[in-house]
Amino acid sequence: MKRYTVALIKGDGIGPEIIDEAVKVLDAVSVKEGFEITYKEALLGGAAIDVTGEPIPEETIEIAKSADAVLFGAIGGPQWDDLPRDKRPETGLLKLRKALEVFANLRPVTVYDELVNASTLKPEVIQGTDLMVVRELIGGIYFGQPRAYEGDRAYNTMVYTKQEVYRIAKVGFEIAMKRNKKLVSVDKANVLEVSQLWRDTVNEVAKEYPEVSVEHMYVDNAAMQLVRDPKQFDVILTGNIFGDILSDEASMLSGSIGLLPSASIGEKYGLYEPIHGSAPDIAGQGIANPIATIASAAMMLRYQFGEESAAKRIEDAIKRVLKEGYRTKDLSSFDAKEVVTTSEMGSLIAQYASEI
Ligand SMILES: NC(=O)c1ccc[n+]([C@@H]2O[C@H](COP(=O)([O-])OP(=O)(O)OC[C@H]3O[C@@H](n4cnc5c(N)ncnc54)[C@H](O)[C@@H]3O)[C@@H](O)[C@H]2O)c1
Ligand SMILES: CC(C)[C@H](C(=O)O)[C@@H](O)C(=O)O
Ligand SMILES: [Mg+2]
């Protein structure tokens, strides 16, 4: 029997609630598909700060590196907001991404037919939207030096090397080749030198993929186009901060940020995480939508373990619960036949994923 080890990082807020549901679903499909997953929990974020004083203890990096994949919930919360930046929960996540060198963050945006009324946009605008944001994850302004908060002055540095842009662009084009051969690269090349390098490098990589149609778009226009006509996009290739913002925006095409999964991948490791945060406003109430995390677990099965049929089981089960009208509270006003808790949603998906 095939065996995989998964480092589980539950984190803060709704993190533990949504990870528990993903584990439920993974356990159900692994029985059906004949593989076994063993889990090792590790601390990160506020949960780690409270125990060790650090947002990412060394042990967490070791556990993450020694596992076959990492499944991550969410971190952060108001109780840690006043800590200095390098002691905050978010810094723990950024350090983990960096330590694992997961430079490519893939954020698929699916609009489920059953939820076309859930978006704030008109159904005819969003129906059929299916796009992939390819976000550079371990460079750009998030990590650039120098950076400081000095009295009345503070600064950050947006920096990309050609090599960093090249490798994320390659990922973008490879994905475009497997999808609809259409890529929009998003930058701010009318203002930023770093975006000029980005654009030049993307154009170089484009020569290796003559079949892929390439368009460059400024980020402000892209933000507008995403809500004007999302179906024009297939692969969106962009840098760290633009990808962060555009993917939250894109989540509202699908109806809830609680639906959007992601895979953060590099040469060696894989980190699977929903795109949303720890949602402190709803933590502990059993109302968080676990689908983003469950779908991230499906991405883990596909990308990290090559367990395509298990991944498909989960994705089909998600479609089925939505089709049958089960909704967590975030989607309760949209064609809901029954409003369910976080745990009930996880159990239904686990049940459907293990049928047949
Ligand atoms: N990857 C991460 O761990 C991650 C990502 C984003 C934000 N954060 C952190 O999370 C904390 C809260 O940030 P925020 O409020 O800006 O963003 P958030 O994504 O946590 O929440 C934004 C809104 O979306 C809702 N929401 C998010 N996930 C949901 C889900 N699964 N089901 C239903 N509703 C959901 C929340 O209730 C809230 O109203 C901050 O400390 C922030 O730094 C962490
Ligand atoms: C929590 C934060 C560091 C993180 C980011 O900005 O990358 C989050 O917003 C995300 O989208 O995963
Ligand atoms: Mg974000």
Low-confidence sequence ranges: none
Structural class by helix and strand composition? alpha/beta
Give the strand order, joined by hyphens, for the main sheet. Answer: 2-1-3-12-11-4-5-10-8-9
The total strand number stands at 14
Enzyme class: oxidoreductase
EC number: 1.1.1.85
Family: Belongs to the isocitrate and isopropylmalate dehydrogenases family. LeuB type 1 subfamily.
Function: Catalyzes the oxidation of 3-carboxy-2-hydroxy-4-methylpentanoate (3-isopropylmalate) to 3-carboxy-4-methyl-2-oxopentanoate. The product decarboxylates to 4-methyl-2 oxopentanoate.
Please tag this protein with its features.
single chain; Isopropylmalate Dehydrogenase; alpha/beta; two-stranded antiparallel sheet; binds magnesium ion; binds 3-isopropylmalic acid; 12 helices; binds nicotinamide-adenine-dinucleotide; 14 strands; globular; 356 residues; ten-stranded mixed β-sheet
